[in-house]
Amino acid sequence: MSGWRSWLTYGIGEIATPTLPPEPTHPYHPLGVDIPAYEENVAPVPVLLAALGGTLGFAVLSAALVARKYNPGLSASGLAVFCWFVMNACLHCVFEGYFVLNHETVASSQSLLAQLWKEYALSDSRYLTSDFFMLSVESITVFFWGPLCLANAIATARNSPSRHALRIIACVAHLYGVALYYATNQCEFYFTGRSHSRPEFIYFWVYYVGFNLPWAIVPAFLLLDSAKTVTRAMKALDKADATLSSHRLRTNGDVVPEPKIRDEHGIVVQRRNRLPGVAYKGSARLQKILSWILSSAVRTTAAEATCSVLSDAIDGSSTLYLFTHEV
């Protein structure tokens, strides 16, 4: 009987019992994701946010004061665009640059930037797992879009002709980056059920959605505005080119004599810095602008000024009016 009992109970001790999942050592999702050497933040969230907001606000305000001193005529909208790109340059080059250079040690570090990243990672744990997509897109952001945003800020402060071209490139880059960021996370959740964000309202809707939403709204607005400005400029230049071409055809290359101007004694006054064959109204500054445009066949920068030229036959001569305004 003892043999039978031994046979019946043989191996019972070795039967594997169901093992419970280990207690999570961190608060990030998906549950069980591997985050080596994780250490909980020591600073409270209000202190972290105040430190980030204060530092960023000081940098942007200082840059705005410098821009206003350098260009007192900078409009309020231009100053707002300048501050937006300064803030982007700081975040891309410093905050995101820290992640790219220290992504392997962020989870265990207690530096200010590391703790900020660990707090934000509650909405996207990929920042603590050295995710290849995050490393790739953040590296492009740091080394390309950060300097581009700085160039945008400088061009805006100087009212440079290139500001709209640089602005369009930066806005397209931001929109594309935000689209990829949202799409990759949501596609993974749709096809696999894995979410990298905690389900609480503050982490998903405030951190994940709210903190990234400005980089979808503001670039879209700036992109539309710059596209409209460039379109208006090119339309005006095309109109100017067509008008000047029509003027040359009507004159057939002949010189239209200017009316003689006499002083109070009846002596003919010789006018200088005038175009031969063109009778012309406007200030001395506009005269120089028109002379330069005619000599260069209307090959000026579209982003710097818009021009419209009206031609009208008055007493057998052609009078041109040139109007310019800043874009």
UniProtKB/TrEMBL annotation:
Stretches that traverse the bilayer: 47-67, 79-101, 132-153, 165-182, 202-224
Please name the source species. Xylaria flabelliformis
- One GO CC term on file: endoplasmic reticulum
Q: Which residues form the EXPERA domain?
A: 77-223
Please give the Gene Ontology molecular function terms for this protein. C-8 sterol isomerase activity; cholestenol delta-isomerase activity; steroid Delta-isomerase activity
The protein in question is named EXPERA domain-containing protein
Provide the alphabetized UniProt keywords: Isomerase, Lipid biosynthesis, Lipid metabolism, Membrane, Steroid biosynthesis, Steroid metabolism, Sterol biosynthesis, Sterol metabolism, Transmembrane, Transmembrane helix
Protein location: Membrane
Q: Sorted alphabetically, which InterPro entries does this protein's record hold? A: EBP (IPR007905), EXPERA (IPR033118)
| Biological process annotations from GO | sterol biosynthetic process
PANTHER family reported for this sequence: 3-BETA-HYDROXYSTEROID-DELTA(8),DELTA(7)-ISOMERASE, STEROL ISOMERASE
Protein family (similarity comment): Belongs to the EBP family.
Principal place of residence: membrane
